Each structure stands twice: as C-alpha cells, then as structure tokens.
C-alpha cells in the first residue's frame, strides 16, 4: 500500500492498487470512531473484488482532528487530484463508499465534487449537524467545511440541556434507552431544512442502504427523503435504494462481529439483541449490493 499524509499530500490515506478494473478507483471512508485499521479491514471486500481502493481518513487519522467538527470535505477533492496524477488515466472513474458518518461524508462530497461517478451509502444521513465532542457537547461550529468555509448546519439544541437530566430522560424512555441513545438525539433534536445536503447537485449514480428503526440515527428516514428529492428534480443518474426490515446500522463492509469490538457493538445496539441472524444477513447482503452496483455503474 502507498501511505499518504496530510503534511505531505494534503490528505490522509492508504492506496491499494487493484488486479481488475484499471479505469476505476473506489474511495472508501469509515464511520465515526473508526480508526485506520478498522476502515481498511471493513473495505477488504472491495480489494478482494479486484478494485483499486483509496482508504481515506477524514478524522482520527494522523494529523487530523479527533472530534467531529470542522472536517474538510477538501480531503476528497485532493485525493481525487492525486489519483488522476497517479494513474495518468483520462478515462478514470471514481467511485466512493462509506458507512454511517462516512456515508454522510460521501453524500456531501458527491454534492460538491462532480468528478465522483458513483456512490454507495450504507446507513447515511442527509443533513449537516453541528460538530460535537466526545462529552456530548456542541462545538458551535459545523461538522464540515468546504474550501475553508463552514457548511450550514443544524444546531444541537438538545446538547445545550443538562447532560445528566438528558441521560436520565433517555434511559427512562422505553423506545430508546442506552442502546438507542444516539437515535434519541437525532429524533428529538431534529434538523433544519437549511442544513440539508444538496443532493440534487450530484453527478453520481447512487445506491442507498438503510435498516428500519436504525439504532444510531434516522438513516431509514434519510434514504426515502433523498430518493424523493432526486425524483422531484428528474435526476438523470441511476438511483437505487433498499431498506432492510430487520437489519443493522453497521453494514456495508467486512464486519468482524465475533471480535471484541464486534461483541461490544452487539451489546450497544438493540437490533443485535432483537434479531442477530438478520443483522448478519444484512451485512453480507449489503456488500453484495454494493459490488453489484459498482459493476453496473463504473
């Protein structure tokens, strides 16, 4: 693999050259809290399929912020410029895929960068929120920036309340509790229309995957919103979507569910206690759908 750094290249990444599809590169980004090793491991299915893959870090990697606040979408633009120079291929097609926060980052990048040909999103969200810290406090800044300017965002009004009282409220709510604490935040806080990602500006084929009653955030509501918006504007590219009736949030890649980290995730998310086998099937099926979609559109 070729290692790329913010200091040297303007973005953090690991590039793995594929064995098939010489005119295609897939940019892969991980979800929130995913360290470099996990991002690369989760995208192994793309390498196994023969794709050249650029694993892109947008936070938590070396020389990057450790909180979700003021993260540059410019990293994607710089990565694409590097790929074009590296491959010297005038026919190069860029695909991009991510899970959760990485799916949101992918959707946002596609709305700003016309070079992205095809995107596959696993458990995405379609609004930009205020940045937040690990202590559940709003930062007063957007989660993302573009060319040095903060993107419009929805404020975390819920996080302005007393933290202890908020936690007690969540724990007492039978529809949420500890295992659906993040979902509670998104459902109760809401998002402003002004923070909506401008998906109609994309030039990408789009695959959107979500699970009903997602434990972490309302991806199951975001997916139909995006699909409906694209229908309204007669979007000229392929749009496919699928919502698993009994799926899980962490899908769209290789997930070592039997590892220590995997068992921890299972304990934290209600979907795994309610229907674990369906969650396993969802993970495997989502990878197949992503690979099939890229084969059709790249």
Give me the secondary-structure topology:
Layout: E1 2-4, H1 6-9, E2 12-16, E3 24-29, H2 36-42, H3 44-48, E4 52-57, E5 71-72, H4 74-87, E6 93-99, H5 101-112, E7 116-122, E8 130-132, E9 138-142, E10 144-146, E11 149-150, H6 163-172, H7 181-189, E12 205-211, H8 219-232, E13 239-244, H9 260-268, H10 270-274, H11 276-297
Parallel strand pairs: 3-4, 3-6, 5-10, 6-7, 7-12, 12-13
Antiparallel strand pairs: 1-2, 2-4, 8-9, 10-11
Brief sketch in words of this structure:
The protein has eleven helices and 13 strands. The protein has helices at 6-9, 36-42, 44-48, 74-87, 101-112, 163-172, 181-189, 219-232, 260-268, 270-274, 276-297, and strands at 2-4, 12-16, 24-29, 52-57, 71-72, 93-99, 116-122, 130-132, 138-142, 144-146, 149-150, 205-211, 239-244. A hairpin with a 5-residue loop joins strand 8 and strand 9.
List keywords for this structure.
alpha/beta, eight-stranded mixed sheet
Give helix % range: 25-40%
- SSE pattern, N- to C-terminal: EHEEHHEEHEHEEEEEHHEHEHHH
How is the biggest beta sheet arranged?
Answer: 8 strands, mixed
Morphology = globular
Please count the beta strands (DSSP E, at least 2 residues each): 13
Determine the structural class based on helices, strands and strand pairing: alpha/beta
Number of helices: 11
Q: Name the poorly predicted regions.
A: none
Instruction: Please give the radius of gyration in angstroms.
Output: 18 Å
Instruction: Report the sheet-strand fraction.
Output: 15-25%
Mean of the pLDDT scores? 94
Cross-sheet strand order for the largest sheet: 1-2-4-3-6-7-12-13
- Give the end-to-end Cα distance, rounded to a whole number of Å: 23 Å
């Amino acid at each position: 693999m070729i290692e790329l750094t913010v200091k040297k290249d303007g973005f953090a990444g690991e590039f793995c050259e594929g064995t098939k599809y010489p005119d295609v590169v897939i940019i892969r980004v991980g979800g929130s809290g995913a360290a470099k090793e996990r991002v690369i491991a989760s995208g192994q299915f793309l390498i196994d399929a023969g794709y050249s893959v650029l694993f892109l870090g947008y936070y938590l990697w070396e020389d990057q912020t450790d909180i979700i606040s003021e993260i540059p979408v410019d990293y994607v633009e710089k990565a694409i410029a590097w790929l074009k120079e590296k491959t010297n291929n005038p026919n190069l097609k860029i695909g991009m895929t991510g899970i959760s926060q990485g799916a949101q980052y992918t959707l946002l990048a596609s709305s700003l960068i016309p070079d992205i040909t095809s995107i596959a999103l696993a458990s995405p969200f379609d609004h930009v929120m205020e940045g937040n810290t690990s202590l559940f406090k709003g930062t007063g800044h957007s989660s993302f920036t573009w060319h040095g300017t903060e993107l419009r965002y929805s404020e975390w009004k819920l996080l302005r309340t007393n933290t202890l009282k908020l936690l007690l409220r969540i724990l007492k709510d039978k529809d949420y509790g500890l295992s659906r604490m993040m979902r509670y935040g998104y459902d109760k806080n809401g998002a402003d229309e002004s923070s909506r990602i401008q998906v109609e500006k994309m030039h990408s084929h789009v695959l959107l995957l979500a699970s009903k009653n997602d434990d972490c955030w309302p991806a199951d509501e975001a997916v139909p919103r995006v699909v409906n918006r694209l229908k309204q504007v007669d979007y000229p590219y392929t749009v496919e979507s699928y919502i698993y009736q009994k799926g899980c949030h962490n899908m769209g890649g290789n997930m070592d569910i039997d590892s220590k980290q995997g068992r921890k995730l299972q304990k934290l998310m209600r979907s795994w206690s309610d229907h674990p086998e369906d969650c396993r099937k969802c993970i495997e099926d989502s990878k197949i759908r992503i690979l099939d979609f890229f084969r059709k559109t790249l």
